[in-house]
Amino acid sequence: MDGNLTNDGLTSTEALLQSVKLNDRLTLSNRIVMAPMARFFADNDLVPTAEMAAYYGRRARAGLILTEAVVISPDSIGYPNSPAIFTQKQTDNWARVADAVHENSGTIFLQLWHVGRVSHPYYLNGELPVAPSAVPLSGRVPRAKGLEYGMPRALDVNELAGLVEGYVAAAQKALAAGFDGVEVHGGNGYLIDQFLHHDTNRREDDYGGSPENMCRFGLEVLDAVATEAGSDRVGMRLSPAAYMNLAPHPEDAKVIQHLLEELNSRDLAYVHEAISDDRHDYKDFGGRVSAFIRRHYQGTVIGCGSFTPEEANKSVNAGELDMVAFGRLFIANPDLVDKLLDGRTPEPYDVAMLKTLY
Ligand SMILES: Cc1cc2nc3c(=O)[nH]c(=O)nc-3n(C[C@H](O)[C@H](O)[C@H](O)COP(=O)(O)O)c2cc1C
């Protein structure tokens, strides 16, 4: 246990508060991760603000902070005021965020995001959103004057290398801004996840039709980003049970299993689960999503999804997970780690807390 973090009176979160060595480059002061959470407080040029830097700085006692999803290129945008990292101004202001966390001895990765079909011409200068296949998304576009989602444009195979370059360029900028690493967002039904699921990937070329082909785009992104950053500074987020923006299919588990097996040879910093509640059992995945990831992936696993600190501690203690990410609890408690150290009860989350960047 890290000497600074021991607390004799505390047993219920002891395992969580232990430091963890991810690899030769990264040792984290505890196993508590701040989950990535889109807050939509960037300015109208998608530049992160000073308030955002202070918000992340206040949470620097987490072993690892993951930024909210960050738009990597103009064609990646799907929501208003989500921060981006494709202009110099955006990059300069991200450096202030990284500095604020480092000044408080924290570690922070930036989450790389392309929404794929989860967008609308309203956000894309009139262009159609892009996706693996022309499969429409239904539902209301958030904060877009009552507009409905619609039909995306299927990506031509010749466009994929350019998309991969977009991820690499964003990763380069994140590292130049001083981030400790990047997380490739491969979950929640966004672009990479759209390739990984049968609902959204109907391609008949090298990027669809089999687990190998459906994983190809995500692995190309990951490998290119890892070549730029070093694999030890790259994590990947995955949501095997497809809980957002796309429909499940009984064959999806085979695709994710293949991906996890491929990741075993890549020496990543970690694989990070994305699901709203990890307590659910999924028949196709043979139980909990966290257990499915653990079964097929031998590296560091970050669990996430409605964990209480006590449950998280139990999972880490039992060796089921290496670290646990908390989302909503970190919105409610900037000082979550200190509260756990002191044995204080965290404030419960309330959706009204999203209105401000406390
Ligand atoms: C307000 C909000 C925004 C979120 N934005 C993102 C995001 O940008 N990227 C991402 O991977 N997950 C995002 N998520 C999912 C969280 O990272 C996390 O998986 C989820 O909240 C479950 O964890 P929790 O129960 O500890 O909150 C978001 C969740 C919330 C509540």
Structural description of this entry:
The protein has one domain (3-355): Alpha-Beta Barrel (TIM Barrel). Helices cover 30% and strands 13% of the residues. It has 10 helices and 12 strands. It has helices spanning 50-57, 88-103, 160-176, 191-196, 211-229, 252-263, 289-296, 309-317, 328-332, 336-342; strands at residues 20-21, 27-28, 32-34, 64-71, 108-113, 130-131, 153-154, 181-186, 234-238, 270-273, 301-304, 323-326. Helix 7 (289-296) links the parallel strand 10 (270-273) and strand 11 (301-304). The site of flavin mononucleotide has 21 residues, from strand 4 and helix 9.
In short, what is this structure?
It is built from 10 helices and 12 strands. It has 358 residues and is α/β, with parallel strands linked by helices.
